[in-house]
Design goal:
The chain has about 300 residues and is α/β, with parallel strands linked by helices. The protein folds into 2 domains: about 90 residues, 3-Layer(aba) Sandwich (Rossmann fold); about 130 residues, Rossmann fold, CATH 3.40.50. It is about 40% helix and about 15% strand. The protein contains 10 helices and 11 strands. Strand 2, helix 2 and strand 3 form a beta-alpha-beta unit. The longest helix is centred in the first third of the chain and has 23 residues. Bound molecules: the ligand Nc1nc2c(c(=O)[nH]1)N[C@@H](CN(C=O)c1ccc(C(=O)N[C@@H](CCC(=O)O)C(=O)O)cc1)CN2. It comes from Caenibius tardaugens NBRC 16725. One of its GO terms (cellular component) is cytosol. Keywords: Amino-acid biosynthesis, Histidine biosynthesis, Hydrolase, Methionine biosynthesis, Multifunctional enzyme, NADP, One-carbon metabolism, Oxidoreductase, Purine biosynthesis.
């Protein structure tokens, strides 16, 4: 048996098309484009690539992109001051501070400064709380993207056993909340979980978000399970190569023979992150302007 590949790249493309069409309607109704401000502190090469990509895709969807780059030496006061300015700017619907931040900046304080209704990353504790109690807010992009892929593949998730490996605020915890909302039976496994392979083996749905290359092995997976790989890990380069291979948290070559469906890395969950960010920005714009967005349109 070879698992069906869940094509996140194609799904993300479809989502961006929908966002683009609805962004045009929004601009006509509101008399302005929806706007996303992205803040990058420092020169981390991967972050630079992601920020460039966010800017390009925002513009391609017919929304306004505002890019703010601060040096790695920027003070907390500089960064918080910029966020306050963006909070007050009516042309900005969504604000995102690219993570990770340089060590001298307090990530929690920075996120807490973003106005919750412009927090399109869904990282603010107000949005985490809204998600926990099932209120409308913003849901972090990567787990929401995973949920979209799961529902597209499986339809109704009700009653399924789901294991989320990893308990980060950005992926693991919100992923567990989303699956619980879909009436899954959810287990959050982590570095202290006893008999992790045994726990994972019970799951109809496995979401791996630990940041450890190829950790989840074929003999951990129940036959036919759906496996979502959130990991993006660069292996050391092979002799003669300048870059190492990109792999997920799942041993793809082994697991694909056991699973029913699996996301590849690259081309699985990663592209969904930015597509959902654009979706969240457009939702924010509708809320900020009091323009209705048809339920389930995005
Ligand atoms: N403020 C935020 N910071 C970070 C987030 C986030 O959601 N908000 N997520 C990640 C980085 N990220 C977006 O910011 C991101 C990661 C990966 C991809 C992606 O498309 N990956 C490709 C592979 C890319 C490659 O070749 O390196 C894939 O998986 O196919 C998009 C966005 C951390 N920071």
């Amino acid at each position: 048996m070879s698992a069906e590949l869940i094509d996140g790249k194609a799904f993300a493309e479809g989502l961006r098309e929908k966002v683009g069409a609805l962004a045009a309607t929004f601009a006509a109704k509101a008399g302005r484009k929806a706007g996303l401000a992205v803040v990058l502190v420092g020169e981390d090469p991967a972050s630079q690539v992601y920020v460039r990509s966010k800017g390009k895709q925002t513009v391609a969807c017919g929304m306004a992109s505002f890019e703010h780059k601060l040096p790695a030496t920027a003070s907390e006061a500089d960064l918080l001051g910029l966020i306050e300015q963006l909070n007050a700017d009516r042309s900005v619907d969504g604000i995102l501070v690219q993570l990770p931040l340089p060590d001298h900046l307090d990530e929690q304080k920075v996120i807490a400064t973003i106005a919750p209704d412009k927090d399109v990353d869904g990282f603010h504790i107000i949005n985490a709380g809204r998600l926990a109690v099932g209120q409308e807010g913003f849901v972090p992009c990567t787990p929401l993207g995973c949920l979209m892929l799961l529902k597209d593949r499986l339809g109704d998730l009700s009653g399924l056993d789901a294991v989320v490996i990893g308990r980060s605020n950005i992926v693991g915890k919100p992923m567990a909340q989303l699956l619980l909302q879909e009436s899954c039976t959810v287990t959050v496994a982590h570095s202290r979980t006893k008999d992790l392979p045994g726990v994972v083996r019970r799951a109809d749905i496995v979401v791996a978000a630990v940041g450890r290359p190829e950790m989840v092995k074929a003999d951990w997976i129940k036959l036919g399970a759906t496996v979502i790989d959130v990991g993006i890990n660069r292996l050391p380069p092979e002799p003669g190569a300048d870059k190492g291979r990109l792999v997920g948290d799942v041993d793809f070559a082994g697991v694909r023979d056991v699973a029913g469906a699996i996301t590849p890395v690259p081309g699985g969950v990663g592209p969904m992150t930015i597509a959902v960010l654009l979706r969240n920005t457009l939702v924010a714009a509708h809320r900020n302007e009091g323009v209705a967005l048809a339920a389930g349109a995005l």
